[in-house]
Write a structure and sequence with these properties.
The protein is of the alpha/beta class. The protein is built from four helices and four strands, in the order βββαααβα. The protein has one domain. Helices cover 37% and strands 14% of the residues.
């Protein structure tokens, strides 16, 4: 399975495969017509409350990851559909977060790989 993560602000590449925006909110500064994506999957994005708690530093990344995985467990069907695409070819999860190491797309990629 090939699932990779990439910021929406990075240029698309030929090896990106199926590009999925996994943020609940549209990324700042990007016109919808300018972003190259195949799907906007809001159902697999963290809830607004969880996102705000993490970005507001109310919870750390470990607590965020645990809570997010619990939310993802309620979206197994959508996750399986995306994981199936990853088994056929590359899936690139697009996110807007500045932190490229500790973000929801990384947690989602790991969760998808476990399905």
């Amino acid at each position: 399975m090939t699932i990779q993560c990439k910021r929406v602000y990075d240029a698309p590449a030929a090896d990106d495969g199926y590009r999925v925006l996994v943020d609940r909110l549209w990324p700042r500064g990007i016109k919808k017509s300018a972003l190259h994506y195949d799907e906007w999957c809001k159902t697999l994005a963290p809830s607004t409350a969880l996102r705000k708690a993490f970005h507001g530093e109310v919870i750390d990344f470990a607590a965020f990851s645990d809570s997010y995985c619990k939310e993802l467990a309620l979206q197994t069907e959508a996750g399986k559909a995306l994981a199936a695409r990853g088994k056929k070819g590359t899936v690139t999860l697009l996110y807007a977060a500045k932190n490229t190491e500790q973000n929801h797309a990384r947690v989602l990629a790991e969760w998808l790989s476990s399905l």
